[in-house]
Amino acid sequence: MAYSEDAGQAALAAIDRALEHRPEKDGHDFADAAQHLAMLRDAMTARYGDAPPPPVSRERLARLNAILSVVLGGHFPLGSIPWHEIELARGWLADLLGEKAAD
Prior knowledge:
By secondary structure, the protein is mostly helical. It contains four helices and no strands. It has a single domain (about 1-100), classed as Up-down Bundle (Four Helix Bundle (Hemerythrin (Met), subunit A)), CATH 1.20.120. The N and C termini lie close together (about 10 Å).
């Protein structure tokens, strides 16, 4: 569990850095956040091997995928970086990390 917690905290820190600096174009913070979110997702899915995760874990993975999608939208925006959505995703991630793993 420590590995995934570390990845989650590192992703949260990278999002915080991006929000603090709010670059006009993508910087390293979005790439760092996306990498750590993918590591967190991999750690969550690795727990089950080939077995399907329980419903609570599937819901957590769906939320994590939504967070990752928003971060990638900031990393590769079609227009300006969607800062409001990045702020929302940051809150979602903090909530997710604050939950006790049900799995």
